[in-house]
From TrEMBL, chain A:
<dbReference type="GO" id="GO:0005096">
    <property type="term" value="F:GTPase activator activity"/>
</dbReference>
<comment type="similarity">
    <text>Belongs to the NPR2 family.</text>
</comment>
<dbReference type="GO" id="GO:1990130">
    <property type="term" value="C:GATOR1 complex"/>
</dbReference>
<dbReference type="GO" id="GO:0010508">
    <property type="term" value="P:positive regulation of autophagy"/>
</dbReference>
<dbReference type="GO" id="GO:1904262">
    <property type="term" value="P:negative regulation of TORC1 signaling"/>
</dbReference>
<dbReference type="GO" id="GO:0034198">
    <property type="term" value="P:cellular response to amino acid starvation"/>
</dbReference>
<dbReference type="Pfam" id="PF06218">
    <property type="entry name" value="NPR2"/>
</dbReference>
<protein>
    <recommendedName>
        <fullName>Nitrogen permease regulator 2-like protein</fullName>
    </recommendedName>
</protein>
<dbReference type="GO" id="GO:0005774">
    <property type="term" value="C:vacuolar membrane"/>
</dbReference>
From TrEMBL, chain B:
<comment type="function">
    <text>As a component of the GATOR1 complex functions as an inhibitor of the amino acid-sensing branch of the TORC1 pathway.</text>
</comment>
<dbReference type="GO" id="GO:0005764">
    <property type="term" value="C:lysosome"/>
</dbReference>
<dbReference type="GO" id="GO:1904262">
    <property type="term" value="P:negative regulation of TORC1 signaling"/>
</dbReference>
<dbReference type="GO" id="GO:0038202">
    <property type="term" value="P:TORC1 signaling"/>
</dbReference>
<feature type="domain" description="GATOR1 complex protein NPRL3 C-terminal HTH">
    <location>
        <begin position="510"/>
        <end position="571"/>
    </location>
</feature>
<dbReference type="Pfam" id="PF24064">
    <property type="entry name" value="HTH_NPRL3"/>
</dbReference>
<feature type="compositionally biased region" description="Low complexity">
    <location>
        <begin position="438"/>
        <end position="454"/>
    </location>
</feature>
<dbReference type="InterPro" id="IPR056603">
    <property type="entry name" value="HTH_NPRL3"/>
</dbReference>
<dbReference type="GO" id="GO:0010508">
    <property type="term" value="P:positive regulation of autophagy"/>
</dbReference>
Length: 384, 587
C-alpha cells in the first residue's frame, strides 16, 4: 500500500494567554481556525491523553499528533503543552507516519529539555523552516535528516508496514530473486557473506549450514533478513518425487508476452540449440497434476528432448505463481487393534508434518519414507 | 487472541445541559481490572515528576486487556466521544495508541414543528440532551473495511434511536433510567461493589439491546434487534460471518465481486440445516426466500432452482447473493459424478482437529482422515472410493456436501488454451513484416509432435505459398463439405453456414492460428470444424469446460472428443475456478 502524501504539518501549543492555537503551519492556512477549534480537544488534550498517539479522522482530514506536556515552574502556567501534527487526506493509510509523529514529539521534548528550544523565542522562530523542510523532504524522499544543533539532528524515515517474512525451515531452499552479483556482498554482515555462495536455488537450508559451516539457526536468521528485504525467496526443495498443480495465474503465461519470453529464456536447457516453443512449455505445465510427479512427467514427455530443463521449468513456475507444490502429509489413523505399537516414525504421522519435514528431521530418504507409509495400512496420505 | 474484527467495547455517550455524560458502556470493567488500571492511571500528587520516564516509555501500555478496553475512565470517554457540533452527523473516527473509536455523533434537533406541539414533558427532556454518540471501540489495526462496517452499524442504530427519540422521547427516557442508576450508585456507601452498569442492564431495555448487539458481534457477527420494540436493526459483519479473520488484507469490494461471479450453472449450498435456517428467519421475510431455501439443493443449478421455485432468475440471484452475504449459504458447482475435487490448502491435516469429532458423528464412526485421503487424488467424484459405505451413493454425496460446507475441498476445472506450435507463426510474422531474414530451419519443427505442421507444404516460406496453401485448404474443405451435404438432411444454406463458421474462426483467431487449425486432420470434417469454430472463443483459458458446456449447450463427451481431435493445437490445464479463487478464500 503506497502511503499518501502529507498534506500539512503544523505546530500547535497552549498559549499562556491565547489558549490553544496553531503557532506555525506549512503550508499556511491549510488547517482553518474553525477546523482546529472543532478538533482542539484531540490536539491539545486533557492530561489523561498526553503522550499518546492520537489520530482523528474527521471532515475529510486525518490529523495525527502526539500531545506533549512538560511540567516545570519556569513556564508561565507551570507547564508547556505542545503538539506537532501531521495532516493527511482522510483516505490515506497513516500507519507509516505514526512512528514518525511519535519520534518527532520525542525530538522536540529532548530539544526543549536540553536547550529550551521551544520556550526560547529566538530558536522557536526556526520551527517554520524546519516544518517546511520536513514536509518537502518526507514527501519527495520519504526520509529526512535535519540538523538542529550540534548535538541533535532529526532523522526520520517512512517505513511502510511490511508483513513478517515467513519462517525459514530446514528443508526450504532459498533462491535469489535477481542476479546475485547486483548486490555488493561486502554490505552484508559476515555470517551472511559466508553463506551467500551457497544460495543457488538448489541447496536447502540444512545443507547450506553444513557446507558453509555455520550454525543452522544463524543461517535461518540471515535468510529471514534477506527474505524481509525481498532479496531472496523460498522455493520448495526440488525432487523428482515432487507433485505440483497449476494455478489460475497460468493464464498470464498464455497472455503476457514479456513473461513468455522470460520463461522461454529461463527454461531453455541448451542456449545454442533452438529455444523450446511456448506450446511445449505450456503443455508440460498443463500436464502437472496432483497424481503426476516430476519423475512421471519426465518419463512421459522427456522435456530434455525439447531442450527444456525440468528443474528450471518447475522453479520458474513456482516463482511466478503459475504452479504450486502439493505437500503430502502422512496421517496415521488411531489403530483399532494394537494401541501400544511405538515406531519411531509414528510421532510424525499426526498430520502436522509433511514429507519434506519428516525427511529432514529423521534423515530418511524420500523413498524410505514412502515405503514405510506404503507398508502401514493405517497411514493415509493427504495432499494439500 | 480475539480477531481484529471483534469489538472491544460499545459506549453510549450524550451531551446536553447536564454536561457530557457517559450513559452506558459494555462490557464494563471488572473490579480486578479496575485496580490495575487505577495503579496505572491515577497520579500520586506527591510523586516526583520524572520526565525521563516518558522518554524511556517508547511503548505505552496497551489499552487492551483480555479483549477489553481498559485504562479509560468514564469521564475521559465522555469527554472525547461527545463532539463539537461541527463534527456531528459525520463519521467519527478517533485512534488513540492501539484502540480506535468509531461512531456517528448525532444532534438531536428541536425536531421540527411536530415536536413543538408535543406535550411539555417531552420537550423538557429533549432539551436536556443536545447530542449523543454510539461508539464502537476496535483494535487500531482493524482493517479499514471492518471500520467501515462498524461505522455503518453505528449509523443504523443511531438513526433508529434518533427516530424513536423524535417519535416518543425514547432515548431521553432511557437516559433518565441510566442516570438514575449512576446516581443510585453514587449515593451508596463507598465500599459497595455494585457497578451502575449492572443496575442499568436490569432496568433499561436499551442497555440490554446494546449488550445483545455487542455479544452478537463477538459471537457470530450477526445482529438482529428491535429498538424500543419497534425499529428493526439487523446487521451482518461479513468478516466475522465468513470467518476471514486470518486474512491480512480484505478488499472491501471483494464480496460484491464474488457475488458477481455467480452464474446460472452454479448451485446453492446451504451452510446450515434447512429447518433451523427457516426458523431463524424473521416472521415478515419474503416468501420467495423461504421458497428458495426449501427447494435449494447442492445437486441442482440455480437455473433449475429458478424453474422449481417459479421465480425469475434475476430474483433468485439476488436472494442467493443475499444469503451468501449473510453467511447462510455458499456457491458451488452442482455436485455430479464428473466433478474433480482436491483438498483445500486450508484443510486441516492434523489428526486432532475438531472436525474429526463432527465427522464421526455424521458418518456414524467414519474417519475424516480416510475421507480426506480419498479426495487427495484428482479423481472424478464418481470414482472416489473408500468413503461412506460401499456402493451407497447417497452416503457419498452426504459426506461430500459436509466437506464442501466446511470448505475442506476445492473443485478443479479444466481450461483450454489454443496454443499453436511456435515455428510457423514466427515464420509468418517474419513474412508479414517483410523481413528478408531466412526462415528458421524446418528441422526444429520435428521436435514438436505436430505431424501436420511438418508435413505441410508451406515450409518453404513464401507469401505466395501461404496463400496457395490457404486456397488449397479451403478447396479441400469445400469438397468434403459437398460430400457432407449429400449425407446431411438439411442441405439448404450450407454455403452460408460454412461461411459463417469460417467468419467465426477469422474473428476469434489470428491468421497463424487459423492456419494451424485448418491443418489439423480433424478440420477436414466440417462438423468437427463447425463445433471448433463455435467453441474457439472459449479457448483462451478464461472459461472452464462446464461453463463452455452451459453457454454453448454441448455435452461433456462432445467437448472431450473435440479436444482429442484438435489436441495438436490445444493445451489443457486444470486448476481452480479463477473467477472464484478470491471468493472461495473469502466465502
Amino acid at each position: 500500500m503506497d502511503p499518501g502524501k502529507l498534506e500539512c504539518i503544523f505546530f500547535s501549543e497552549f498559549h499562556p494567554t491565547a489558549g490553544h492555537k496553531i503557532t506555525y503551519q506549512v503550508p499556511e492556512d491549510y488547517v482553518s481556525r474553525e477546523l482546529f477549534d472543532t478538533l482542539h480537544v484531540y490536539i491539545i488534550t486533557k492530561p489523561e491523553l498526553q503522550n499518546r498517539l492520537i489520530t482523528i479522522n474527521a471532515l475529510g482530514r486525518k490529523i495525527i499528533g502526539c500531545p506533549v506536556n512538560i511540567q516545570n515552574d519556569k513556564y508561565s502556567r507551570n507547564a508547556l503543552l505542545f503538539n506537532l501534527c501531521f495532516v493527511c487526506n482522510a483516505s490515506t493509510d497513516t500507519a507509516p507516519y505514526e512512528p514518525l509523529v511519535k519520534k518527532l514529539a520525542n525530538y522536540l521534548l529532548t530539544l526543549e529539555l536540553e536547550s529550551g528550544f521551544l520556550s526560547n523565542d529566538e530558536s522557536k522562530e526556526r520551527l517554520p523552516s524546519i516544518l517546511s523542510d520536513l514536509l518537502s523532504q518526507l514527501n519527495s524522499h520519504g526520509k529526512c535528516s535535519i540538523p538542529i544543533n550540534e548535538s541533535n539532528t532529526i532523522h526520520l524515515k517512512i517505513v511502510p508496514p511490511t508483513k513478517d517474512p515467513q519462517a525459514v525451515l530446514e528443508h526450504h531452499v532459498p533462491m535469489f530473486l535477481t542476479d546475485r552479483n547486483a548486490y555488493d556482498s561486502s554490505h552484508w554482515d559476515l555470517t551472511t557473506q559466508q553463506i551467500l555462495p551457497y544460495i543457488d536455488g538448489v541447496n536447502h537450508v540444512q545443507r547450506i549450514a553444513t557446507e558453509a559451516d555455520v550454525d543452522i539457526n544463524l543461517v535461518k536468521i540471515c535468510l529471514q533478513t534477506m527474505l524481509y528485504y525481498g532479496v531472496i525467496t523460498i522455493v520448495p526443495i526440488f525432487q523428482y518425487s515432487n507433485v505440483y498443480i497449476t494455478q489460475p495465474d497460468i493464464n498470464k503465461l498464455a497472455e503476457d508476452e514479456a513473461l513468455q519470453e522470460e520463461c522461454i529464456k529461463y527454461v531453455t536447457k541448451n542456449e545454442m540449440a533452438s529455444a523450446p516453443p511456448l506450446r511445449s512449455i505450456m503443455h508440460l505445465y498443463g500436464s502437472l497434476r496432483s497424481d503426476i510427479s516430476v519423475k512421471d512427467l519426465c518419463l512421459r514427455f522427456d522435456p530434455r528432448s525439447m531442450n527444456i530443463d525440468e528443474r528450471h521449468l518447475i522453479q520458474f513456475g513456482v516463482l511466478r505463481g503459475l504452479i504450486k507444490r502439493l505437500h503430502q502429509y502422512p496421517v496415521r489413523v488411531p489403530d483399532r487393534v494394537d494401541q501400544q505399537r511405538t515406531q519411531p516414525l509414528d510421532r510424525y504421522m499426526n498430520g502436522h508434518f509433511n514429507f519434506d519435514e519428516i525427511c529432514c528431521k529423521t534423515g530418511q530418504s524420500h523413498q524410505e519414507l514412502e515405503d514405510y507409509v506404503e507398508n502401514d495400512p493405517h497411514i493415509h496420505v493427504l495432499w494439500k | 487472541m480475539p480477531g481484529r474484527s471483534t469489538p472491544l467495547s460499545v459506549i453510549l455517550v450524550s451531551s446536553g445541559s447536564k454536561g457530557n455524560r457517559l450513559l452506558f458502556r459494555y462490557p464494563y470493567q471488572e473490579e480486578s481490572d479496575k485496580e490495575v488500571v487505577q495503579k496505572n492511571r491515577t497520579r500520586n500528587p506527591y510523586a516526583l515528576q520524572l520526565p525521563e520516564d516518558d522518554l524511556n516509555d517508547c511503548k505505552p501500555a496497551s489499552s487492551i486487556r483480555h479483549g477489553k478496553l481498559v485504562g479509560y475512565s468514564d469521564e475521559i470517554l465522555a469527554h472525547i466521544l461527545t463532539t463539537e457540533t461541527g463534527l456531528c452527523d459525520h463519521r467519527f473516527e478517533l485512534t488513540i495508541d492501539d484502540v480506535k473509536f468509531v461512531g456517528q455523533p448525532t444532534l438531536i434537533v428541536g425536531g421540527g414543528r411536530k415536536l413543538r406541539r408535543h406535550d411539555e414533558k417531552t420537550r423538557r427532556e429533549s432539551r436536556t440532551m443536545a447530542m449523543f454518540n454510539l461508539v464502537f471501540v476496535l483494535h487500531a489495526s482493524a482493517d479499514p473495511s471492518v471500520v467501515g462496517c462498524y461505522h455503518d452499524l453505528s449509523k443504523r442504530l443511531v438513526l433508529a434511536l434518533k427516530h424513536e427519540e423524535r417519535r416518543c422521547g425514547y432515548l431521553s427516557h432511557q437516559a433518565v433510567l441510566m442516570m438514575s442508576a449512576h446516581d443510585e450508585v453514587a449515593a451508596m456507601p463507598e465500599d459497595a461493589e455494585e457497578s451502575p452498569f449492572s443496575i442499568m442492564l436490569q432496568k433499561s431495555k436499551l442497555c440490554r439491546d446494546l449488550r445483545h448487539v455487542f455479544n452478537g458481534l463477538c459471537d457470530k457477527g450477526v445482529i438482529h434487534v428491535f429498538i424500543n420494540n419497534w425499529i428493526e436493526v439487523s446487521f451482518c459483519l461479513p468478516h466475522k460471518v465468513h470467518n476471514v479473520d486470518q486474512m491480512v488484507v480484505i478488499d472491501p469490494t471483494m464480496i460484491e465481486q464474488s457475488l458477481l461471479a455467480i452464474r446460472p450453472y452454479h448451485a446453492l449450498l446451504l451452510l446450515e440445516d434447512e429447518k433451523e435456517l427457516q426458523q431463524s428467519l424473521p416472521k415478515d421475510c419474503s416468501p420467495s426466500l423461504r421458497r428458495v431455501i426449501k427447494w435449494s439443493s447442492p445437486l441442482n443449478s440455480l437455473q433449475r432452482l429458478s424453474q422449481d421455485t417459479d421465480l425469475a432468475l434475476s430474483q433468485v440471484f439476488q436472494i442467493v447473493g443475499h444469503m451468501v452475504y449473510w453467511g447462510k449459504a455458499t456457491i458451488i458447482y452442482p455436485i455430479c459424478g464428473s466433478n474433480v475435487y482436491i483438498l483445500s490448502p486450508r484443510a486441516p491435516t492434523s489428526a486432532n482437529s475438531p472436525y474429526h469429532e463432527e465427522f464421526r458423528d455424521i458418518t456414524a464412526g467414519g474417519f475424516l482422515t480416510e475421507a480426506l485421503a480419498a479426495f487427495s487424488q484428482p479423481t472424478p467424484f464418481s470414482d472416489v472410493m473408500n468413503i461412506g459405505e460401499k456402493e451407497n451413493e447417497a452416503e457419498k454425496v452426504k459426506i461430500l456436501v459436509w466437506l464442501l460446507q466446511k470448505r475442506l475441498l476445492i473443485q478443479l476445472h479444466t481450461y483450454v488454451f489454443l496454443m499453436i506450435p511456435t515455428e510457423r507463426p514466427t515464420q509468418l510474422v517474419n513474412l508479414q513484416d517483410k523481413h528478408s531474414r531466412p526462415s528458421p530451419s524446418s528441422s526444429s519443427a520435428s521436435q514438436d509432435k505436430n505431424s501436420s505442421a511438418s508435413t505441410n507444404p508451406s515450409h518453404h516460406g513464401s507469401t505466395g505459398n501461404v496463400a496457395d496453401n490457404m486456397s488449397m485448404d479451403s478447396d479441400e474443405l469445400s469438397t468434403s463439405l459437398d460430400s457432407y451435404s449429400t449425407l446431411s438432411l438439411d442441405n439448404e444454406g450450407h454455403g452460408h453456414s460454412r461461411q459463417k463458421f469460417m467468419d467465426m474462426l477469422k474473428e476469434n483467431l489470428t491468421e497463424a492460428e487459423r492456419q494451424c487449425v485448418m491443418n489439423v486432420p480433424a478440420a477436414k470434417k466440417p462438423e468437427d470444424l463447425k463445433l471448433f469454430a463455435r467453441l474457439c472463443p472459449y479457448f483462451r483459458g478464461r472459461h472452464h469446460l462446464e461453463e463452455i458446456m452451459y453457454y454453448e449447450n454441448v455435452n461433456r463427451s462432445q467437448v472431450y472428443m473435440l479436444l482429442e481431435k484438435f489436441k495438436q493445437v490445444l493445451v489443457v490445464c486444470t486448476h481452480q475456478d479463477a473467477a472464484t479463487v478470491a471468493y472461495k478464500e473469502f466465502l
